[in-house]
Amino acid sequence: MSGAKSMAAALSASLPAPVRAKTPQPVQQSNEAKVPQRMEGVLDVEAERDIESVKLNSLVFLKMMKHSTDNLPPPPSASFQQDRNAPPPTALSSHPDATGILLGLDLDGVMEVEDCFALPAGETSLGANSYSSRLVAHLRSVQTPDSAVGIYLSTHNGGFATRAAIDLLISIERITKRGRAVLVIHDQSAAPAGDLSVRAYRLSEGAWEAAKTAKWDTAVLSENKITAANMLSPLPVTISTPSLLNALLATLTAPASTSSSSSVLGEPRSPFPPTFSALTNPLPASLPSYLSDTLDALTLHSHEANNVAYLVRQIGREKAKHEQTIKDREEENLRRRKQGLSELPPVGEMRGGIKDPNRLELLCLQGQVDGLAKGMSAEAGKGLVRCYL
Amino acid sequence: MSLDIGSSAIHLNLPPASSSQVRSPSVINIHPSVLASILTHHSRKPSESSTPRVIGTLMGTRSESGAEVEVRTSFALPHSEDENQIAFDMEFLMEMVDLLNKNGTKEVIVGWYATHSALNAYSAVIQNFFSGETVPYPAVHLTIDTDLSEQGKGLGVKGWVSNQLGLTPKPESCVFLPVPVQLKYADSERAALDMLTSQPTPSPSQPPLPTLAASLSDLSNLIDNALTYVKSVNAGTTQPDAQVGRYLLEGVGRWAGSEGEEGGVKAGLQDTLTVAYLANLVRSQVELSGRLTLLQQGTN
């Protein structure tokens, strides 16, 4: 099979040079990475232009849908902060969230997402030997765009980005060194009502500043004025369908031209008969699930807040101890001066253990509670509309 | 919901004759994302390659007896073919299957696809190889015809299984038997597909009420149609059709029987209002706590 392998290498070598090779010093590397002529005006070399909207390919769309309906194993229980006890197992935290990476390119301020793949639960970085880098290497040999531009997350009942998702986003932005990563959130529970909920976000300015320093403590938060609500800024989303797929879909939905006219009720030819599922009242079933999800999120949030408070108290205790030590040392020195002995050296810097706790998890959980509550009120609102139609 | 132009073949779904429980599949269910992925792969083929088609692997699940095969994922295989030989990257296949098995979905190789409507000797060779991979079940082959021909027969999606033929068991001699192919998707994906097939594609992050309004107007149109039909039959202008009459009778009967719904709506009203109030309360609480954190640090 060595012939086939070198053929695969030849295939990948015939691609236009991957855009990731672009760095902010194009002068030294101009001979290595050549931008195709037609793309030069549009391709944003130094990533100056911020992304303003997201264009999803319908392939990405369908794959996201499919991943959200897969039977996934429950997520591994990960504890981010130094938990004294594990967080209480709630239905929310054991619900698997389908996560994956988006591949594509950003052109002219529009992030075009061409392909995507699913990630195993528990991956939080795109390091050198991670699942995603190996998969991307394989995809590259079949001419798939190989630059990760963001992640997608499939949540339930209006959730929000989890801590793992934000970590992935940040690591993508670090690795690609250009522009910003995009987070696409798909809400799976709106679908039975006949609606579709796909939203795109990116980290807001303040959040990016905090992420660069990798410290999410209170000083950084207040400096950048980050709350759960403005951590992510939304982006408009459009969907583009390549022409082949468009033709296929058109053939699927077109009514059969040769309908047998003997009976008006011939068998439905098209695979997509119209549905009226939006008209049934789902409230008796869906409201309790919203309520329980919100309660679970509140439980997790309060657990995390307890953790943070414990750490803050710990820090306070350490500080007090340290000051006490300094005072003792001072008194000791005073005593020795009086007795004419040599003075002890001053107490050194306080040792570790005084870092302000990382509040990212708290922020994410707050956002989650907010998102769930928003979903709940939207659902209740829809129910009211149905009652009074 | 067949994806191909109708054929006059009948596909029999016999119960297993022997105890070995391995049968060739009688229907193939495909998820729409697989179709999209195959077509995208085809369009990404570099123009200077010599092969007229692209091939790749299909992964999915099988039912107990192997009669129903569900195709959920696909990925492309780099390959090369010319008049003398055909070759593809087997290590690539193994590694991709390994990686895909790690991401939580339990899928196995079920077959392969090609974007060419012709089945030639190379197809037989590859089919033989894949049958070795999917032992003891037979491998499924899917062809998508990407030449958009004028008669509108383009983009036919056909499924095949192979049977050995001939006096000596050579890999190239087998016959491909057609298997019906159906599109299968979960209910929650229905909305997405509706949106993709409506022209022009609207933005996917719409607020929920327009769909409700659209469904209502559709329903009212359908009721109007049924009403005009019934009126015209009564007036004697249209020939009555017994089947239509029976359907209408059933439908109206079912509807009239479910009158207990009124009480349910009113009883739920109080709950709904309470929930809306609570949701607003929670949201303002969360926002306040977020701001208070910032304030606390500012004064520290």
TrEMBL record, chain A:
It comes from the Eukaryota. Residues 8-18 have a biased composition (Low complexity). CDD domains: MPN_eIF3h. GO terms for molecular function: translation initiation factor activity. Residues 1-37, 67-97 are annotated as: Disordered. This is MPN domain-containing protein. Residues 54-207 form the MPN domain. GO terms for cellular component: eukaryotic translation initiation factor 3 complex.
TrEMBL record, chain B:
Gene3D superfamilies: Cytidine Deaminase, domain 2 (3.40.140.10). It is found in: Cytoplasm. SMART domains: JAB_MPN. Residues 28-166 form the MPN domain. GO terms for cellular component: eukaryotic 43S preinitiation complex; eukaryotic 48S preinitiation complex; eukaryotic translation initiation factor 3 complex, eIF3m. GO terms for molecular function: metallopeptidase activity; translation initiation factor activity; translation initiation factor binding. One of its GO terms (biological process) is formation of cytoplasmic translation initiation complex. The keyword Cytoplasm applies. Keywords: Cytoplasm, Initiation factor, Protein biosynthesis. InterPro entries: eIF3f, EIF3F/CSN6-like_C, JAMM/MPN+_dom, MPN. The keyword Nucleus does not apply. Component of the eukaryotic translation initiation factor 3 (eIF-3) complex. Component of the eukaryotic translation initiation factor 3 (eIF-3) complex, which is involved in protein synthesis of a specialized repertoire of mRNAs and, together with other initiation factors, stimulates binding of mRNA and methionyl-tRNAi to the 40S ribosome. The eIF-3 complex specifically targets and initiates translation of a subset of mRNAs involved in cell proliferation. Belongs to the eIF-3 subunit F family. This is Eukaryotic translation initiation factor 3 subunit F. It comes from Kockovaella imperatae.
